[in-house]
Amino acid sequence: MTAGYGKKRDFSQTPEPKARRGEKDDARIFVIQKHDASSLHYDFRISVGGALKSWAIPKGPSTDPRDKRLALPTEDHPRDYADFEGVIPEGEYGAGTVLVWDRGTWENITRKGDGIVSAEKALEQGHLLMHLEGEKISGGYALQRTDTGDDEKWLLVKMDDDAADARRNPVSTQPESVISKRTIAQVRRQEGDGDAEDAS
Predict the structure, then answer these.
(1) Could you tell me which residues come within 8 angstroms of residue 21 by beta carbon, excluding any fewer than 6 positions away?
(2) Mean pLDDT, rounded, for 46-74
(3) Contact criterion met (CB below 8 Å) for 145 and 154
(4) I need a labelling partner for 23 at 20 to 30 A (CA). Which of 2, 91, 167, 199 fits?
């Protein structure tokens, strides 16, 4: 599932993890990585079928059910990528600084009739309901496909439940990594060349 990931990267240049052959782990994890590349965005990834299904979310996730956040699909990533923080060098795909903004577990709650629709089938059909248990965000979220083909687009929307909070804005109030407690600027200074403009 991660063949596209490997083809886009030169692992003699980038510190990103390689995909391991035969990798299989059914634990339901999710990760949101803050990625200061050509533009600052958030990469939302959920484990499905031994890989991390991935979407780039320009504005990051919201805790307000009224917000419909654009989510652009990217290539599947290996599960080891869930712990990756560092600087992807210039000239490499996705060049920029990455930190783990949030992480936790997720549960598929997509239903049809009395049964659960598999995550694979739900994604194929373009509508996945999830319950997230993260350090910064939690509760129900929906991923809804709105366009297909070369211009495939999705929306990530918070469900209206006990974890919904229109007053919170964790993207701006909690910019640091949940692993290292560093900001994007600190990761860049400590692991990169330190010449790039600072960002939080």
Answers:
(1) none
(2) 97
(3) yes
(4) 91
